[in-house]
Amino acid sequence: MAAIDIIKWEVNDKDFCHKYPSDNISMGSQLVVYPGQTAFFVRGGKICDGFGPGTYTIQSDNIPILDSLINVPFGSAGNDGGTGKSKSPFKAEVWFVSGIARLDFKWGTPVTMQLEDPRYNIIVPVSAFGQYGIRISEPRLFLESLIGNMPGFAASQIEAYVKGKMLARLNGIIAHKIAEDGVSILDINSRLAEMSDACQKALNQTFCAYGISIVEFSVISVSVPDDDPSVVRLKEAKDMAARIRITGRDIYQMERSYDVLEKAAANEGNGGQMLSMGAGLGVGIGVGNIMGNMAGAHLDSGLQNPPPVFDKTYHIYVDGRQIGGLSAEAVMQYVKSGKADMTTLAWTSGMKSWAALGTFPEFGRMSGFDTDVPTPVPGVE
After folding, report:
1. C-alpha pair distances (Å), 369 with each of 185, 283, 335, 360, 375
2. Could you read off the pLDDT of 182-214 as tens digits, one per residue?
3. Are residues 198 and 179 in the same domain?
4. pLDDT in tens, 290-310
C-alpha cells in the first residue's frame, strides 16, 4: 500500500472512536484532528502519543516516543529532496476518539423492581424510565480499557455495554435514594430532579474507570400498577394518614367507629340482630372495640362498661329439660316468646353452677328487667 499524505476522521454521531484504515504512514504526512477529537498513535499495542484538535505534520520532533520506537533513520540522501528529513514509511495505527456527547439514549427497567415504601413499609412493584447521554471523558483510558484490537467502537456498541451495567445498578441506586429521603413511592414523581442527580453521580462512579461519563441523566417517570393489591393497600395507607393529619387521631377513630356501627346494623348476622333487639349503641362500640371511654363523652351513650362481644354459648333449663348450645340471641328469643324469663336457670362455660338468667350482666341489660331474682332451684344440674 502506498504511503499516505493526510490522516483524518470525519466527525459523525454514529461512532465514539475510529481506527484509521491504513497503518502505512510516512514522515511528512499531515494529521488532521477535528474539534472534539483526540488522535493517538499506537504501535505494537502500546499507545504512544496523543494529539488534540489541529493539523500536524508528522515529524520526529513532534512524535518523539514514536520515533524512538520505530527507529527511523534520518538524512537519507535522495529520499527527502535534500531536506535532510526522511520520508520513509513506518507502521503505526492511528486511533481517533470523539469527545462529543450523545444525549439521545433511552433507558427503562426491563422488569418491575420490588421496592419497599419507606413511609408505609409496603413492598410494591415499581417501573421507571428516562434518558441519558454518553461522553468519552478520558480518551486514553477509554482506548486502554475497552478497545483492544477492535477496529472501532460504534455508538450502538457502547450503548449496549453501558445500558447493561446501568440497569444492573439502577435498582439499588433508586431504592437507596428512596429510603434515604424517606419519600413515599407514590410521591416520588415530585422528586425526580433529585433522583436524577443521585443516579448520575452514582453511575459515574462506576463508568469513570472506563473513561466514560454519563451526562444529562434523567428519570422521566417512576410508576406503579394501579390495580396491584399492594399498591391499593399503599394508597389506602396514605389516605388514612392524610385523614389523621387533617382531622386528628381522636376524631378519625370516632369516624371509624361510626363506620363499624353502620356495617354491623346492616349485616344480617349476629351483630345486626343484637342492634335490632335493643342492644344499643354501647353494644356496637363493644363490637368495634376502638372507642373506649372517649366514645361515652362523644356519643353520650350513658354506658360506663359496654358489654363484650357475644361469642359464648349457653344452656338453659326450660320445661323440665336442659337445652344447650344456644347463642345469646337465641336465649333472648326464648325470653321474648315467654318460654323463659329472667328467673330461668342458665349456665355457660366457666361457671361453677347454674344461675338465674337475670344475674347474667348481658341479659340483664338487654331485657331492662330488674335483675334481683329468687335464689336458683337447688339441686338442678
Report:
1. 58, 18, 11, 12, 16
2. 888 888 888 899 999 999 999 999 899 889 999
3. yes
4. 334 443 434 343 334 444 444
Is residue 117 very low, low, confident or very high in pLDDT (cuts 50, 70, 90)? confident
CB 122 within 8 A of CB 237: yes
Among 264, 281, 305, the domain boundary falls at: 305
Indicate whether 276 belongs to any domain: yes
pLDDT at 329 over 50: yes
Residue 58 lies in domain: 4-98
Examine the domain organization and report whether 117 and 222 are in the same domain: yes
Kindly state whether residue 279 falls inside one of the protein's structural domains.
Answer: yes
* 31 domain-assigned: yes
Regarding whether 218 and 152 lie in a shared domain, the answer is yes
Q: What is the pLDDT of residue 298?
A: 41
Render the burial of 202-226: b for 16+ CB within 10 Å, e for the rest. bbeebbeebbbbbeebbbeebebee
Residue with cell string 415530585: 190
User: How many domains, in total, are found in the chain?
Assistant: 4
Burial class (CB in 10 A: 0-12, 13-18, 19+), 284: buried
Identify whether 242 is part of a domain.
no
